[in-house]
Amino acid sequence: xxxxxxxxxxLGFPWKTADPFLFCVHHRDEYPQGNEEMGPAVNxxxxxxxxxxxxxxxxxxxxxxxxxxxxxxxxxxFETVTVTKEGxxxxxxxxxxxxxxxxxxxxxxxxxxxxxxxxxxxxxxRDKGNTLELFQIWLNLPSKSKMVQPYFSMFWxxxxxxxxxxxxxxxxxxxxxxxxxxxxxxxxxxxxxSWAAEMDHEVGIWTIQLDAGAQLTLPATQSIDTHRTLYxxxxxxxxxxxxxxxxxxxxxxxxxxxxxxQAGNSETHLLLLQGKPxxxxxxxxxxxxxxxxxxxxxxxxxxxxxxxxxxxxxxSEQVHDRASGRFARHADGREERPV
Length: 339
Description:
Helices cover about 5% and strands about 40% of the residues.
């Protein structure tokens, strides 16, 4: 094994992550045509409705009863970064904010002192299937930022920097920079209280696509302390520093040395997560992530008392009008749409 490779292991559910990250999942569901309620236009019998995480007929309903997805639920003490590849997500939250995003868009949400939100997957197409593919990444907050005001940003895919690379034999690669810096090209600004807001923390979230046979060298980080993990989730025959990597594996690597990837005979897709560790205690209880058990108990009392602002929407499975298009409406009433 190359001394640049520290560990290789199969991807489970969720994917294993390193500080400052807490959690990462990859969802891909081949949803059928949608019905009038934007749920699946098929019989849902035989599913564990309300907690349907087993792939059946190519898809899962998750916690949704009529529409697939994750009805209203709370978070405190960390951030969610939701990276879409295909399909649509409808967001609603306890601050009254809402949004619809997909097909390469990214939502970056700071839960901070506490927020409820829903993430539903409306099946807009009634005449064809509704494929959904996404990553959800949980990025920890340091203790000084765990009780900041909740906040979210929408990164429309039209504005996310994409680096195109051509190797010596003309094969192509693309690196989409959701967070961090790639050879001087910076990502859009993350949430203001994020660990990623300080460039010295070297937080990177990149999606990487290589054509069959393409070669790409990833640049080194500045710090030897930065954790870097690659998640090889699609393709065959990838080699990393000359070592062949089996599909659907993660590779922990040294970050302070450049790293050469070579795709096999198929298009290859990876996710990269990197960052300096926060190096603080992590105590997690479901959707709450704090620094001590006492803080978790306080969080549970706070949620029981305030519901983090309550739920201002008519449904726990809140979805927006079928024709609304992609949009973000913030808690202050400001609305934005992709240009």
